[in-house]
């Protein structure tokens, strides 16, 4: 049975860019495409008129127009549409559970308007049980310098893996591009105040070799499982968010993880936040196993 790639639409241009990206992804995977618009009518929320029929007609026309847009470029793709009667966050979280991937539009970061990922998207990203891809407009950016890549951020080689690496390797294999596995490391926090700080700094080269070995170890079984994927091991000293963002210049997709913190606590780490707000390429947020 073919899988499902779902797009959450809201009538904005970034959401249409997400539909473009998702159509490409569905065709690549041999999956079907599902276009949904989560909508709950209420007089205080109405922006297109105080009449439910008018509002609902606008929602359905937005879905129809998105479907027609996809059909122009992917005429053989199986596409379904649905208006979800309910609040957007729980509705989209439920869609993520039934889909291989949920795609949402993102305005990204603007120097004047600040952080614009959107509260609905952030709540969905924190709660979703499956991969969520945030797509900036346009979904098909201008050609980047050098060969295309999929980039995956590995925060802790001793703990990271599973779902995040599986998603990243499958994305690279499906696109026929190399996978760049990025791990940023830093000196222990004690450096700077400990009497032994100068000694530790002198050992930085040794620490780098340890970090590189750890990265290689976590990637080894995945290299064996996906021999067709060329893997670039990128281990660099510095801020994790800065290293990951600078490594994404040639990325078709950046993959980051989301870790749960027990007792139902789900949050996005600072690195994931930075990538979501500043990356110009689609970003996949994948819950750790």
Helix segment tally: 9
**Strand line-up of the largest beta sheet:** 3-2-1-4-7-12-11-8-9-10
Low-confidence stretches: 109-116
Total strands: the figure is 12
CATH class of the largest domain: Alpha Beta
Strand content: 15-25%
Radius of gyration: 21 Å
Domains, number: 2
Q: What class do helices, strands and sheet pairing give?
A: alpha/beta
Domain UspA: 4-136, 150-287
Pfam family, one: Usp
Protein name: Universal stress protein
Family: Belongs to the universal stress protein A family.
Put the structure in a nutshell:
This protein is an alpha/beta fold. Helices cover 40% and strands 23% of the residues.
Report on the structure:
InterPro entries: Rossmann-like_a/b/a_fold, Universal_stress_UspA, UspA. Belongs to the universal stress protein A family. Pfam families: Usp. Residues 4-136, 150-287 form the UspA domain. This is Universal stress protein. By secondary structure, the chain is α/β, with parallel strands linked by helices. The chain has 2 domains: 1-139, HUPs (Rossmann fold); 141-289, Rossmann fold. Helices cover 40% and strands 23% of the residues. It contains 9 helices and 12 strands. The strands form 2 sheets. Strands 3-2-1-4-7-12-11-8-9-10 form a 10-stranded mixed sheet, with helices on both faces. The protein has a two-stranded antiparallel sheet with strand order 5-6. Helix 5 links the parallel strand 8 and strand 9. It is elongated and about 70 Å long. The protein starts with a strand and ends with a strand. Mean pLDDT is 84; it is low at 109-116.
